[in-house]
TrEMBL record:
Protein name: Uncharacterized protein
Keyword Glycoprotein: no
InterPro entries: Isoprenoid_synthase_dom_sf, Polyprenyl_synt, Polyprenyl_synt_CS
Family: Belongs to the FPP/GGPP synthase family.
Amino acid sequence: MLFCRISRNLRGSFNGCRWFLSLGDRNHRFLFSHGYLSPRNSIEQVMASSNFPKGLPTLHSSRYQIHHQSSSVVEDELDPFSLVADELSLLGNKLRSMVVAEVPKLASAAEYFFKMGVEGKRFRPTVLLLMSTALNLPIPRASPPIELEDTLTTDLRSRQQCIAEITEMIHVASLLHDDVLDDADTRRGIGSLNVVMGNKLSVLAGDFLLSRACVALASLKNTEVVSLLAKVVEHLVTGETMQMTTTSDQRCSMEHYMQKTYYKTASLISNSCKAIAILAGQTAEVAMLAFDYGKNLGLAFQLIDDVLDFTGTSASLGKGSLSDIRHGIVTAPVLFAMEEFPQLREIVNEGFENPKNIDLALEYLGKSRGIQRTRELAVTHANLAAAAIDSLPQNDDEEVKRSRRALIDLTQRVITRTK
């Protein structure tokens, strides 16, 4: 039980506006360094002082810069999901075939998300399929799903489709486990699996999906890709543990929050994007740009998610609004509000089991710029994601250019979404 054997104990100073996250593998070491906004730091000052991987341009040079005032992209918009609609349909069929199990009850549980349509628009597979084309990979004619027993998929596009399938299975498995840990009762408007079938079967279904993802991953026979995605699973567990075992200082630290956010949300999409580049035989620099895109897109996505927990409704979000704060989870809007109202820290340290503390925290949040500053930070990361795509080697192929514009368009959709 990869995620659910961790004890459930959600307890946890905003002692800095800077976070550093370094991740290493055999060949690279990534350093994330952001000066998060303080009363003395504007967005522009933060961007000027931040350190990003070599080769990533400053935002003023990007043709695709997103402006949070207008939320517009300096290129014609297009629907990213329509560009890969046929492949997404095949991917859905393949996923359903991959969750067939000898024990019917387990197969039923594993298929629940797919059958009930709660997997959403398949955001992550869309990103990965677009990234494949953006790196100049041809799209072959649709072919029947490849059986799990196939030990090696020789067609490059099919192998990258396999990465999209693996990523989606890891994502859904993490949702199943998270719902158990969070005692969730709904997911996108319907009963969560742990409510419908119980915690034990929900955990086993998540484990089953992870095992299927491992089988598909092994079929690629690429040790670097295997290592990347195995690290993702470790990051998911690490992030969840960080969330559940925080000290008071960690709970109020932006550095700790951003590390946790990377592990829980951005690691999966960033490392999957890098895997796409590796399978394509791209250079280390291009692979790094793919990683940067996924990392910053994932961070922007989660920051907006944290905003929507306060501004959205249960119906639009598919979960109870204020769910984070009710579970004692302190996110960016509250952390930014704490800068303006230090007395909020005392309320955070007391916890939110008392509804009066929730009301007080919301009162301070409403008086602060916490929501606005979180949105601004999300735009900062969306701009960095766009800049990473803008830095890819020039390519005159129309399919490549269209896919790159679609990836840029996704950065806008992430920061303007309402659910």
